[in-house]
Design a protein that fits this description.
Helix content is 15%, strand content 31%. The protein is of the alpha+beta class and 150 residues long.
Length: 150
């Protein structure tokens, strides 16, 4: 049996986050997350909102005041039972994804919730990803890299 060489510990410069596939500074991580064409919100294992990105044009407006609040307080009262059921299914491993789509001001909004687990499969929290897919749905044919005119 051939043994895999062990990865060498790499000491990152101060302020650089060493990840499995590379390293980024805090500023680069922030820029990457804010450049994504989706709204991202992270809810921890205790159902507390811990982070949201500042995507260019957010579908659901967020203020910094939401950070530290229970996610249930961020939804209309009539949907809290569904939020709780999704979170329970994620925590117990019954599901890893929940998807919804709604019409908002003539736009089609796709909302997905993803379970986040650590390397051992332990529940870490939920990632909400929201995207306006109206224009994506209109795509037909092909537009290749070499077709780009600048």
């Amino acid at each position: 049996m051939v043994e895999k060489p062990k990865a060498k510990a790499v000491r990152s410069p101060e302020g650089v986050l060493q990840l499995e596939t590379g390293a980024l500074s805090k500023e680069e991580v922030d820029a990457v997350l804010n450049a994504l064409p989706v709204d991202v919100t992270f809810v921890d294992k205790e159902d507390t909102v811990r982070y949201f990105n500042r995507a260019g044009k957010r579908t659901f407006v967020r203020t910094k005041g939401v950070v530290g609040r229970k996610v249930q307080l961020c939804h209309p009262q009539k949907s809290i039972h569904v939020v709780n059921r999704i979170l329970e299914d994620f925590k117990t491993g019954k599901r890893d994804v929940a998807e919804f789509w709604v019409q908002m001001r003539s736009r089609l909004v796709y909302i997905r919730y993803f379970t986040m687990r650590d390397g051992e499969g332990k529940y870490m929290g939920t990632l909400e990803v929201t995207q306006d897919v109206t224009d994506i749905k209109k795509i037909e044919g092909e537009k290749r890299l070499l077709d780009w005119k600048g």
